[in-house]
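Good day; I would like, with your permission, to put a structural problem before you. What I wish to show you is a protein chain and, alongside it, a tokenised description of its three-dimensional fold. I would ask you to consider whether the tokens describe a fold that such a sequence might reasonably adopt. You will find the record immediately after this paragraph:
***
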Amino acid sequence: MTLQQPDRQLAKRFAWGGILTVLTVASTLAVACGTPFAALATLAALFLPRRDAFVLITVNWLANQAIGFGLLHYPLNWDCYRGGIDLGIAALQSTTAAMLAQRALRNTAATVRAIGSFAIAFAAYEGSLFLMSPAGSGADFSAPVVLYIFYVNAVALVGLLLLQTAAAALGLISPMTALKFDAAVPRGDASGRP
């Protein structure tokens, strides 16, 4: 029995989501539960349908929490639970912000869309966490900490974009989801007139 075309596309989507989740889980372990949610939100906003983007972020948040509580033995107390919930909310808000930025920048070059979406996603992520954090946790938002998180996310985004491009070139994902470094989308009718 062979897979029909829609089944193949669905299988590719699940496989690609699984690969991204394994990579972010590995990065979570490498940087002490510092999952690059802003980078992942940007990638999801640029390449995935809305529903798939939120599923990817949610699955990665669940994996992050499973690692934290299961492997790293986070304490089972309200502060840790609240912190995990805050991360999930911030990751979803970051995804929404990246989608809005991507939509607002849709008539710009792909590089501008990627950088702009990432900047907005990172600001939304950190801003959400700051607003939800309890009083007295200002050290978590000191310049060195925020710059480190920015660095981790920026490096992750570059790696994810390269991986996305390679996966499209190898046929692992459909070219429709590949980043197209093209000029701004022209406005006007089919004849090219504005």
User: Anything to note?
Assistant: Residues 176-194 have pLDDT under 50 and may be disordered. The helical segments are 5-30, 37-47, 50-71, 78-104, 110-132, 143-169.
